[in-house]
């Protein structure tokens, strides 16, 4: 981690901490673009909302273009996810902010405490207790990674049916009988998509909320890698106990 950088903003001393390295930041924005394209093209493939007239030459290629874009960005999203999984162990910043100690009671106590904070919006009464992910965010990202993995498996399995016996059908064809048929696989694929959309709505809205009301620099941290805290700030190990006092 880089040395803390102290500077003065509006006559108040604060400290900047280097939290997200360049690989984490770049891969995050690749995901933003890839997921956006996947959702848009996925909606079109499922329910075409633009139907060119038959006499327009390009009309026959719109669906094919959408499918090609969907497949291309599925590959990009998958490779980016695999590299992020590798970087989780090979990098030197992200893992230290990712505390997935599900075997400890304190993990679940903090997750429940933070869930109540999110629901009631009462966490604006005190300073954020950690630089990295709180345990609820950690749990959410693990579930999101697993959901995205299933999304990739179901998507590539359906893509493989376009060319029976081909590379993707051979590699992922087992997914369809595992889930009881292509109709079930397609339904699972859509349900996970809606779950990801729900996560995005929450993620974006709360990042903006925290930026405005609590954690200055929250939005810019995924660009610069730096998070801002008041001078002398210290992390709190058991924030739910501090809150109850």
What's the short story on this structure?
The protein has 245 residues and is mainly α.
Q: Could you walk me through the main structural features you see in this protein, from its secondary elements to its overall organization?
A:
It is a single chain. By secondary structure, this protein is mainly α. Helix content is 60%, strand content 7%. It has 9 helices and 3 strands. Strands 1-2-3 form a 3-stranded antiparallel sheet. Strand 1 and strand 2 form a beta hairpin. Helix 1 (22-46) runs antiparallel to helix 2 (62-90), helix 3 (105-120) crosses helix 4 (135-160) and helix 4 (135-160) packs antiparallel against helix 7. The longest helix has 32 residues, at 182-213. It is elongated and about 65 Å long. The model has no long low-confidence stretch (mean pLDDT 83).
Please report the number of helical segments. Answer: 9
Strand order across the biggest sheet? 1-2-3
Distance between the termini: 33 Å
Average of pLDDT? 83
* Poorly predicted residue ranges: none
* Bulk shape: elongated
Largest sheet: 3 strands, antiparallel
SSE topology sketch:
Blueprint: E1 5-9, E2 12-18, H1 22-46, H2 62-90, H3 105-120, H4 135-160, H5 167-172, H6 175-178, H7 182-213, H8 221-224, E3 226-230, H9 239-244
Antiparallel strand pairs: 1-2, 2-3
Helix pairs in contact: 1-2, 2-4, 3-4, 4-7
